[in-house]
Amino acid sequence: MMRHKFQAVVHERNGNFHSYYVPGSPVDMLQACLRPDPALLFSQGQSVSSGRSGNPRDLAKVVVGAKSYFIKRYNCQGNLYRFKYIFRASRARRAMKAGQLLLSLGVPTPEPLVCMEERHGRLLGDSYLVCPFLEGCHSLFDLWPGLELFRKRLYMQRLGELLGTLHRSGVIHGDSNWRNILVGEEEDTQPRFWFVDLDGVRRYRHLTFARAQRDTGHFLRELIRNGADEEFAQLFRHHWQKSLTLT
Q1: β-bridge partners, 68
Q2: Is residue 108 part of a domain?
Q3: Is 194 helix (H, G, I), strand (E, B) or coil?
């Protein structure tokens, strides 16, 4: 699996906005469009559905230059929310750090490009995370019912290996439900996976087997909800444990 090196993140302040990004073209062009008012660029984008109701996050696809980007906006939820994050990074900022971490471990996720936080003093307002838009991808939740049997087995093998790799590095995803796993295909029709929605990612100095196993619970519950039999759960567990070396 390809591992990415951590890149130095630049922190800039412009009025009430704090921006975090890795400089370089085309990120500089994207940052220039976001800097005056990220809400304006967000409003000009195409709304993207998360498939969930009551979600405190809004999603949009925007085009800057010739490239498409995905923007997730974490909405301010009132005064309690503002005070809760006085001394904490926003969920967007945490997701950006988590994305860089996963990529450094060789676990695929869309590369986090820019994070912006709106703060009045230390009080947090809306925050934004921008990544490349993955064209032609669908969530595992949407794809599963139409997959052929051999593809379902292949998916369980590959995803067991990826989650095992994550846990072997002391990291949990925190919400591995199937809407947070995107699937695309390479030219040879082999599946390619990306983990998204990373603000629940945590890294532990010593990740116990029990905690790692609990982190797979979201994934396995989705498997049951989709009517899969025990064969698929056993296949997933086999490859997860094979990739996992925890005590």
Answers
A1: 63
A2: yes
A3: strand
- The residue type found at 230 is E
Distance between CA atoms of 184 and 186, rounded to whole angstroms? 7
User: How many domains does the chain contain in total?
Assistant: 2
3-state secondary structure 133-174: CCCCCEEHHHHHHHCCHHHHHHHHHHHHHHHHHHHHCCEECC
Is there a single domain that holds both residue 90 and residue 198? no
Structure tokens at 216: 């797979």
Structure tokens at 112: 């986090």
How many CA atoms are closer than 13 Å to the CA of 99, on its beta-carbon side? 24
- Residue among 77, 75, 86 at smallest CA distance from 119: 86
Quote the CA–CA distance of 117 and 70 in Å, as a whole number.
16
Q: How far apart are CA 232 and CA 238, in angstroms?
A: 10
Q: How far apart are the first and last CA of the chain?
A: 24
- Tell me, what DSSP letter sits at residue 9? P
126 is written with which tokens? 């809306």
pTM strictly above 0.85? yes
- For the stretch 79-138, pLDDT in tens is 888 889 898 999 999 999 999 999 999 999 999 999 999 998 889 999 999 999 999 899
What letter does residue 51 receive in the DSSP assignment?
Answer: S
Q: Quick check: helix, strand or coil at residue 108?
A: coil
Instruction: Provide the CATH number for the domain around residue 234.
Output: 1.10.510.10
Residue 4 forms part of a structural domain: no
Same domain for 174 and 111: no
For residue 230, give the DSSP letter. H
Nearest to 111 by CA among 133, 90, 89: 133
